[in-house]
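Continuing the batch. This is chain 6 of the set; chains 1 through 5 are on the previous pages. Same settings as before, nothing changed between runs. Recording input and output for traceability.
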Amino acid sequence: MIMTKMPAKYPVGIQTFSSLIEEGYLYIDKTDLIYDLVNGNKCVFLSRPRRFGKSLLTSTLESYFSGNKKLFLNLKIYRLEKNWDVFPVFHFDLSAENFDHPQRLINYISNDLKSFESRMKLPSEGSISQRLKNLIIQAYNTTGKKVVILIDEYDKPMLDSLDKAEIYNDIREELRGFYSVIKACDRYIRFAFLTGITKFSRVSVFSGLNNLKDISLHPAFNAICGISETEMHEYFRESVECFASNERISAKQVWEKLKYCYDGYHFARRGEDIYNPISVLNTFDECEFRDYWFETGNPKFLFSLIRDNHFEIANFEGATRTADQLSDISNLSSDIVPLLYQAGYLTIKDYDADTSLYILGFPNREVSRQFWQRLTNKNK
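Output for chain 6:
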């Protein structure tokens, strides 16, 4: 059988906005949400599971604040933005290192700071916190423009050391000082954006950053990462028809299987269903249904926690938590549900307005199947 070529270039593994646009990959246009985000907020935190598009969102913000107008020519924000001002942007990506020691964290951030300091003609002296403060002030004084701070996967160093108490505490304190600079330099900052999987709200990493607005459960930004039901039908209709033709099944069957396997996420008390983007894109790129999201990560530590603390697995489906409880992972030995939610293994299924409780459950077949398989296999 001759396979029909799929109708798009799917951005599997591409997290840089400029590369995606310039090389003609499929881009799901969320720039109207980005416009609302940056014009209605100043210091923002967003929690989403791994591989849900946080890095691409951060990269898009970098291009926007850098004034790269031509990259947005055919996107929604082009009609909304009138000024296209250029701001000094400091972008830190903490996803690319294994932080098994506080010094590795300091060295990693220091390398990023050095490149910024070189541009600003500043010496590389002092703690990473002091150096960030010096950079912000120097950039403002030099350009006359307020600064943009973007920190992707802010929590990766703490997650890497979560099972090593002493290292974890040292890393947390280093990061707390670093992030507190954003509050201390508030008058010099146009916009600050931090992404991560978890919100360490009860373990003081944000204690010096109390002006941070958490939009993780905000209905207006439910679909800012991932692929909504509307976007699936807008951007993937041709892909579904082509996939169906190649597999000699109906388009209806493909839609149903996509929904069954990869849909079902909700990140707010109301809003559209959200599909797992990495699984959807890989399905069309590989022309095959597989459990792609689980293939991209190894959650051994999470499953070890469940086994070691003898959690009642049956209590996960239908578990209820308040918004505060969903952001609290300060005591994983007694309650692992918030971490399961933040990491994407559970999602919001309903909301009880009378009790302000979110009702949780497994989002789809991919997650529930792989969750049970890996939980029962101690080697995975």
